[in-house]
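Inputs:
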Amino acid sequence: MRDLLDDLDRWRAAGKRVALARVVDIEGSGPRDPGAAMAVNEDGEVVGSVSGGCVEGAVVGEALEVLRDGAARLARFGYSDDEAFAVGLTCGGTIHLLIEPLDW
Amino acid sequence: MSRDVPLFGRFSGLVRAARPVALVTVLDGERTGSTMLVVPDGDPEGTLGHPELDRVVARDAVGELEAGRTGVRRYGPRGQVTPEDLRDEPTIRVFIDSFAPPPQMWIFGAVDFTAALARAAKLLGYRVIVCDAREVFATARRFPMADEVLVSWPGPVFAERGAALGARDAVCILTHDPKFDVPAIAGALDTQVGYIGVMGSRRTHATRLERLAEAGIDDPAALARLMAPIGLDIGARTPEETAVSICGEIIARRTGRGAPSLRDGDGPIHRP
């Protein structure tokens, strides 16, 4: 999240609502370690990443959903989870994300 | 810390000031998303929903922060951690996101390999300090990528700041001049630094070991901490390749992987 601070501070100073997604856990092989973060503002602008580019698109959708209903949630993206999620990780692992409104 | 600034503002300020801070967040139940800010030397701010849970998690977060670890831990709703106390209790997962200050790399010797190593170390997120006793060479102009350039002998630098070195930090001694190497190695061995690499051929290192013994440094356990010749055996030749070989060795030593270090082989470092 260190790399996101400039954008987050700028967005918040401009009064934008922001959702923050962070990798909290990985099972098997994952491209980014826990702590990897991306943020999405109410205009749909995105900074950071939580995988090697595999799931970012889906995370943006979840993040905008979080901004709509204001509730923090956990999301899981995995290779074998093709029923629940249309996207997966090419490396075969599963990542667990916390997606929350940055309202604190 | 001022209560007028939102939690995120204080978090952002601490990270920017390179102060250690952990961001702690509840992942389960009604309090999902509740956040607490933990610093090693002050009271936590925010709450996870129960004062006892806050106290136990803050204690653990300080430990995780010291180790530079980020991950999930499990607690009872009132901070219980032992299996007996957790029986028949739902557990709450808590995410501890550690923001430790960047690790340090101290490079002794303002030589041509130093600039390349300093650049590679910056890429990996180190705070880089270059030190040499010769003021003509130890200049910020020659090492603009370094966070600090010190004109000093090694002794005073270790005396002043050596206590701050820990497992995540590295000392690289590139001088291959015994006048400078011996006090730099002596200083580094007196710290808890995680990596000590020393440049020079196997022959240079053999001579260096004699000089160290003359200075009273002959404890095999201490000398076993030295990675000399410095770097992985990847056939590096240029300063840039050598920098990659050194950084690769630092990563491999930290992760315990079996990448081949030059120290553990024999024969010439540079082969035709």
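Chain A has a mean pLDDT of 87. Flag for discussion at group meeting.
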